[in-house]
Amino acid sequence: MYQGKSLNRIICIALLVLCVLGSVAYVGPSPQANAEAAAGKGPSSADEVKAFADAFFNRAEIRSKLAGAAFVVVSDNKVLLNQGYGYANLESKQPIEPDKTLFRVASVTKVFTATTVMQLAEQGRINLEDNVDKYIGGMKIPNHTDSPLKVKHLLTHTTGFDFTDNLKPNSTDLDTVTSLESFIQERLPTVVRKPGQAYRYDNFASDLQGYLVQSVVGQPFEQVVREHIFQPLHMNNSYLGLNSKLAQRLATGYNSKNQPIQPYTDTPTISPSGGLISTSTDISKFMLAQLNGGKLGEAAILKPETVSEMQKVHVGILPELPNMGYGFEMFYHSLYNGQKVVEKSGDHSGYHSYMWLLPDRKVGGFIVTNSDSIDVRTELFKEFMDHYYPADQKPRPAITLSAKDLAKFEGSYRYLRIPMQVFDVKLEDEHLSISTPVGVKKLKPVGDLLFEDEDGRMAAFKADEKGVISHLYYMIPDAWSERVEDQPPYSDVPVNHPYAGYINDLRKLNAFPVNTSSAFAPEKTMTRGEFSADLVGLIGIQPTQSPVQFKDTVGHRFAAQIQTLVEYGAVNGYAKDKFEPDRPITREEAAVLLWRISQQFANTDVSAKLSGITDLWAKPAVEFVIGSGLYGPEVRTNQDGLANYHSRSPMLRQEAAALLTKAARFILTQQAKGKV
Q: Domain SLH, which positions (predicted)?
């Protein structure tokens, strides 16, 4: 059996900022505000910190949903709080023991991985300015740019890779092993953007860091971490890789309905990007070392100057909106209250973690939970900062820009991590408007390349070396959005074409990668292979390199995309060992493919009244499509409210454009409104 590494989770995490920060009236302190940091003294009393934490976790709305959590606060080289709340196992009412209860800390692992890279840099065994290829055992990373991919780009998530997320399902067979080396070889992405040019959260970059360390040291990555981090810091209950013995000590993970999730492995089994299993006690030791120049007691894992380099801002679209240090990220600027904060969060099925450090204050916090039913991390951090470091934040005054100056920002910006999200920026009545998953927002200029919407969210732009606006950073914290190049209109899709809007929108999403001609052929039928490829392109899944299941797809140009959908449970064959990739896809077949893949990240339990003939196996999918409004003008509803989807008719390319474009909007809107 497999535990899916859910697409839902990546989209939901990316859009979390919509719910968490939607009402914040100010985002990002000015440089002056940093110099005039809040006068709060921070946590100093263990009793007071416990009272703060108890009050938070004892709220009825949290206690009723949260399975369990461990919360740590450190200050001035001391642990002020290390407390468990709720249960490690709901069924047995097993309490959380901070010294013993194991949690998956997910992507917090990345800071540990970055630490091993920095240890090698300290020792002179690697140079952060060197090409990555120099250190990965003869492997060569495909690079379609004229710029080298450097080690520092892995640390700052600015690799320019075409694919950065590993969505391969994880196995619930704890004896399953996928080596780090084979994983890197099989999933090796291609550099398609100039390294260092743009920020995009990058799981593969962290896995590649681990493989680099393993190759340079000549020891398994987990051994390096154990000998050079765990043992010096006496992190005696920290591990990479889950086995049946450790699973007995692991807090049970629960889904959004607080139903237990079967323990699962990571892919790769030893995952530098998210495989750390630890206790809150052990994490507190690492935090103390990071806040004390790399030392804990007499043990040192890094030099003070190296720690400072890790915690320094290396990437930010503007000074007001930093993004990355080395391994650390900066997401929730609006909550920093003028303080310097570095952070790292992590998410796995059933487990969610968040570590924040205030290096100048020698203060840090860490929370980990074992349930998908409620996410308390950013709310806890917000209350922590407001309680201990309150700040009177003043809105930035608007500045005046002419219509000519504003016009240079117009365009479509495609979110680098999930291509189905596109922000359209338009000039309207001497102001900018921007389309979002929660509606159209108005942007007012408040600084050079910096805007603010009516909800207080900042929108920052970046210009290239020629002064042309190239990127946008807005609303979603874990990646920039790149400007979509203007392209000439399709010769056979006039402006007044009934499907012109859908076709042009789909072009922005880059979901028709196979169509490079000047004509779109809107009334041409779409094949099963073409639709599979376009669906994979829309979602942004890296096509698999696994052997194909269907014999008639061997050597086919869309074989990898079809097999990818097989691995995600979206595709069944037309007959035994056959898929018929070149046969026109029917409208109900297309609906089923979309419905199955959508179940991973959207509520597909939608009903509708149908007329015409729809095969029984396709009825739930067609009802989902009709009930969610995922169709173009070819579908009409009669006076009785019945819709004829023309289920058995071949799907035309123009109809597929309407279906896929509307599906992307539906998924993003659901996520943004928290309906999943």
A: 486-544, 545-608
